[in-house]
């Protein structure tokens, strides 16, 4: 068996290559490459190399029209950051494509809620007390999450 991350990465890489990207990392690590400020307002659209070459690519980046002048101004810096990420002069020029960005789903921070005494006792009877193995710790943490959120869902139904 393979780890799910490896399988998912290969599937994503195939889909991204169809969009003109040779390396999926430019999409998946965009915020790391250009920094959070630029990543918030931009998204890489394609990376096209000249036929038969691995240098001198054209990077197309989409941004809202209000951000386009700033992105154009910072184009040389973006190219420098992308080339630094690749480790060689992969990108020679950047094209700015104006348009809406895809919606970004932001995760809400996990809020650990305390369990009541009955739930704690029930979980301890299932997992055990005292010195716990890493697997038991993981199961206990999952159990705490499930029980605390099940209680929330039940309380919402009563309102």
The CATH topology of the largest domain turns out to be GMP Synthetase, Chain A, domain 3
The helicity comes to: 40-55%
The major β-sheet equals: 3 strands, mixed
Low-confidence stretches: 155-159
Under the CATH scheme, the architecture of the largest domain is 2-Layer Sandwich
| Measured distance between first and last alpha carbons | 46 Å
Category by helix and strand content? alpha+beta
In short:
This protein is an alpha+beta fold.
Keywords, separated by commas or semicolons:
disordered C terminus; three-stranded mixed beta sheet; GMP Synthetase, Chain A, domain 3; alpha+beta; 159 residues
Could you outline the blueprint of secondary structure elements for this entry?
Layout: H1 4-18, H2 25-28, H3 30-34, H4 36-41, E1 43-48, E2 57-63, H5 68-73, H6 75-86, E3 91-98, H7 117-127, H8 134-158
Parallel strand pairs: 2-3
Antiparallel strand pairs: 1-2
Helix pairs in contact: 7-8
Describe this entry's structure for a reader.
This protein has 159 residues and is of the alpha+beta class. It has two domains: 4-98, GMP Synthetase, Chain A, domain 3 (2-Layer Sandwich), CATH 3.30.300; 117-158, no CATH class. Helix content is 53%, strand content 13%. The chain has eight helices and three strands, in the order ααααββααβαα. The chain has a three-stranded mixed sheet with strand order 1-2-3. The longest helix has 25 residues, at 134-158. It is elongated. It starts with a helix and ends with a helix.
């Amino acid at each position: 068996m393979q780890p799910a991350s490896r399988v998912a990465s290969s599937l994503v890489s195939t889909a991204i290559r169809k969009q003109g990207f040779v390396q999926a990392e430019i999409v998946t690590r965009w915020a790391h490459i250009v920094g959070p400020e630029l990543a918030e307002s931009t998204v890489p659209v394609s990376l096209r190399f000249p036929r038969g070459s691995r240098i001198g690519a054209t990077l197309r980046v989409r941004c809202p029209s209000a951000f386009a002048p700033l992105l154009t101004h910072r184009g040389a810096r973006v190219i420098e950051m992308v080339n630094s990420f690749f480790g060689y002069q992969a990108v020679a020029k950047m094209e700015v494509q104006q348009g809406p960005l895809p919606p970004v789903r932001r995760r809400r921070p996990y809020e650990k809620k305390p369990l009541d005494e009955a739930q704690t006792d029930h979980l301890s009877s299932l997992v055990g007390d005292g010195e716990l193995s890493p697997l038991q710790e993981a199961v206990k943490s999952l159990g705490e999450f499930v029980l605390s959120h099940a209680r929330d869902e039940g309380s919402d139904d009563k309102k």
